[in-house]
Design a protein that fits this description.
The chain is α+β, with helices and mostly antiparallel strands. The protein has helices spanning 40-45, 54-57, 142-149, 164-173, 187-191; strands at 25-26, 29-30, 33-38, 109-111, 114-116, 129-133, 154-158, 180-184, 195-196. Helix 3 links the parallel strand 6 and strand 7. The longest helix has 10 residues, at 164-173.
Length: 199
């Protein structure tokens, strides 16, 4: 029995608009990379939005994305259903309902399915913005560590891989500014005109 992978990213020139992506090719095709992205229209409005330091040092970049913890709990990646989950009202002593809650993080925590780094805990939460992620097991702890170690005021909401493309496309169709995890080259990245944020 012969097994063969049918996935192959073709060789040749990959179209890049204004040089935002550097895509490397090899004899087997393109080299894809995961990253944190913003839509192209966000970059048009905020020219420094593809540089992570803008979110640390420029006040005008501190509130362009949804507020931390603003994603509805019903949109979050769940382990199992829970009562009152639509209102993020998990009563004390209830079993964790969210995938993020069962992942231990060093010096940080998950709250109702949101990754919350130390700089966004307690009263500091009001100064934080939201980042959309698929699943804590995708690039495990890599981007969470980048947020924490660079002291960026972001929490992460885990939407789940199945519903994620539709969720991101809906945000894009509504013209919302948002910060999200994905990879490129990929049809979803192309559909929203994704621009990588440089770290």
């Amino acid at each position: 029995v012969l097994f063969r992978s049918m996935e192959r990213w073709l060789n040749g020139d990959f179209y890049t608009e204004e040089g935002y992506f550097t895509t490397y090719t090899s004899p087997v095709g393109y080299t894809g990379t995961s990253s944190l992205f913003i839509p192209s229209y966000t970059l048009a409005k905020y020219p420094m939005a593809n540089a992570y330091n803008a979110y640390k040092y420029l006040p005008e970049y501190s509130n362009i994305f949804p507020k931390a913890m603003s994603t509805n709990c019903s949109d979050m990646l769940q382990v199992k259903s829970a009562e009152n989950i639509e209102n993020c009202d998990l009563t004390a002593g209830s079993t964790s309902a969210f995938v993020c809650d069962v992942n231990p993080w060093t010096n940080t925590t998950c709250v109702s399915g949101h990754y919350v780094p130390p700089q966004c805990q307690g009263a500091n939460a009001e100064y934080c913005q939201e980042l959309y992620m698929t699943d804590p097991y995708y690039d495990t702890a890599m981007f969470e560590a980048m947020i924490k170690n660079n002291n960026l005021n972001f929490t992460a909401s885990y939407i789940g891989a199945t519903d994620y493309p539709a969720f991101i496309k809906a945000k894009h169709a509504a013209g919302e500014d948002f910060f999200f995890y994905w990879y490129s080259p990929d049809p979803l990245s192309a559909a929203v005109g994704a621009r990588a944020v440089n770290f």
